Amino acid sequence: MRGNNVVGILFANIHEELVHELTEKRTIGSIPYGGRYRLIDFPLSNMVNSGINKVGVITKGNYQSLMDHLGSGKAWDLSRKREGLFLLPPFDGVHGVYSDVNNRMDSLSAISRFLKNSREDYVLLSDCDSICNIDYKDVISFHLDHNADITILYRYGKVPPKSNDTSVYTIDPDGRVLDLLVNPNQEGECNYGMNKMLIRRELLMNMVNDCVSRNMYDFKRHLLQRNIKNYRVYAYEFKGFLNVVDSMNAYFEANMALMQPTVRNELFTPERPIYTKVRDDLPARYGLNSSVENSLVADGCVVDGEVENSILFRGVKIAKGAKVSNCVIMQDTVIGENCRLNYVITDKDVQIHNDRSLMGFQSYPVFIAKGSVV
Amino acid sequence: MLPKQEVVAMLLAGGQGSRLGVLTKGIAKPAVPYGGKYRIIDFPLSNCVNSGIETVGVLTQYQPLVLNDYIGNGQPWDLDSNDAGVHVLSPYQRSSKVQDWYKGTANAIYQNINFIERYNPDYVVILSGDHIYKMDYSKMVAFHKEKKADCTIAEIEVPLAEASRFGILNCNEDGSIYQFDEKPKVPKSNKASMGIYVFTWSKLRKYLEADEANPKSSNDFGKDVLPAMLNAGERMFAYQFEGYWKDVGTIESLWESNMDLLDPNVPLDLSEDSWKIYCRNPGMPPHYIGKGAKVQNSLVAEGCNVYGEIDFAVLFSGVYIAPGAVVRDSIIMPGSRIEEGAVVQYAIVSENSVVSKDCVVGARPEDVEDKDGWGVAVVGDNCVLAPGTVVPPKAMIDAASLAAAN
């Protein structure tokens, strides 16, 4: 049964400066990932699979690719009369425009009408830069069981190294948050936030309104930290697979992690599928003398060369004699004959002419921008 | 009253397809999987949409559950439109006294005259759901208009030696048909009917009603309606189609047509952007080719995990090929598993089956002594073969016969 009294809010741009190469012409939510997905597919599918019927996607700039990808929301079953998908681009209304992409407070204040008009009692907030398959139903029950005002999601482990937006929580054995530190100098393992939280809708609106009226625009410090003792703030631990895309390196590793069957099985479990826009390509075609090992290959690829430890997105062509190792090759890239590629990330629609050699290193993959011709 | 549609397509999808044996035991022929991710019906449906035909009636009768489910609201083909779109038309009880199955192809259309009339069309295109081809029906309709024809039949030139397997159209120089020759022993031409007709609706309606009134008629287009029109001197033309076209009504032709996708010399390109073949997508992650796998000359769909060796294989979504398993010249349909040490050659393994450890399914023709007894081996859906089972060439097994044997 669908419908669970929760409205989802996704921030499609937050943290995009961390992977500026990939977000030059798109939002962080629309970064291609895993051969056929975009990052937003994960938080969005998670919400839908948990019974959330209404999702607002907050975006500020560069959102053409995002709109193209989401369309009417059909692929996520969110194209519907009752509720569905709502794109929330900047809006020059009472509250002005979103002045800062990364400012959650500003964005939330600007969509106050959307929040006010929602019927659901709870709001689930999430960024788009973490890759996981999570059942929010458990989070919702946790929230209700603990009679919480706010439930934040966290993990125990090392903080993602490049993150500039870390929250570290001190939690009592019952799960109640005692303290929150924002961007501390944290060595070793700790409880760090996943930038996902569940909160009562009325409470969120009041808190945002309160902060904005005091000219306080820092979501974590002003809304959360300042109020941690005033409200019942609880923390829910997520123990599954999580990858946070906070650098090009992390992006590369997040793709490579998919070579492990355990990771694939967890992320792409049939009980909670990850939906994405459909392209209607022919299945991948392998030619005479092609050789492929330890690779993930999407529909529409044509492989006549050699591929190892790589991810080929939809519609990639690898010509005869080419050798592609340890690469992430995005949609419709064409790699010519006898090319040698090692540790390379090519963005969409890249053309590599015959006999080219491109070599990066594991800790520093070479990046070729969208539409480039080499 | 619905907005007028100039052309309405009627897709005959009710046949059992008995020559496909266990593959059509539980599903209608048009729902049989093809080409790694498609079902046969995706071809006529996609052709309709790509040709600008927005109204399609699909006539179902035999085992319609999977087919109905698959077509759904027609969204994968863009056929979920407000006033037109795809409609599944099953036989129905017309009155307390009249309750018929579709007696023949012509009767199936006759029973749905009301459906067609809602759109007040000028032309009706009759299609069948057992061919693999890409065709622009709008060009055929334009030809029909240009010739001021009452009926236009699509034809394709086949090798004269094979012509006696087809319905042959004998034509005058202007393209008008003067004779139908059903499977002639001595064919006079090599123009084979493709089973695709364009009719001027007002004419067709008249002949359908006359045909229904004739108690001796078998209510079939090829046997009754078309000859009646020809005898009455209606304007009937042959429209020549060039390109890939294959009837996939038998195990051999279905197997061959899948293998054609692996042959770069066969003119069937399903990756053309301007003429996509749409289908209901399984929504699985990209497929994974493991360490030590050998993959060549194959078509592999999403969600597969390949650790063994495949050569000239068509793998549908979610197929698992274990390390040490070998699949050659074969088709493995969605969700099936080929376990360690199993060898599958010249075979079709249907959906959700398990070919366990060390099984041998099918054989290469060159390895068989009895050449006449050789053929493609078929494992039906939801079969679990015991380890070491041998399925000889041309054999056909299904879950029921497996259960009976145990």
Question: How would you sum up this structure in a few lines?
Answer:
By secondary structure, chain A is of the alpha/beta class. In chain A, 20% of the residues lie in helices and 28% in strands.
> How are the strands of the largest sheet of chain A arranged?
5-4-1-6-11-8-12
- Tell me the structural class of chain A: alpha/beta
What is the distance, rounded to the nearest whole angstrom, between the alpha carbons of the first and last residues of chain A? Answer: 51 Å
Shape of chain B: globular
Mean pLDDT of chain B: 91
Largest sheet of chain B: 10 strands, parallel
CATH fold label of the largest domain in chain A? Spore Coat Polysaccharide Biosynthesis Protein SpsA, Chain A
* Average pLDDT figure of chain A: 90
Please report which band the strand proportion of chain B falls in: under 5%, 5-15%, 15-25%, 25-35%, 35-45% or over 45%: 25-35%
In the CATH classification, which architecture of the largest domain in chain A applies? Alpha-Beta Complex
- Proportion in β-strands of chain A: 25-35%
Radius of gyration of chain B: 22 Å
Total strands of chain A: the figure is 28
Structural class of chain B: alpha/beta
Please identify the top-level CATH class of the largest domain in chain A. Answer: Alpha Beta
Number of helices of chain A: 9
- Which term fits the overall shape of chain A? elongated
- What is the first-to-last residue Cα distance of chain B? 59 Å
How many domain modules of chain A? 2
User: What oligomerization state is this entry in?
Assistant: heterodimer
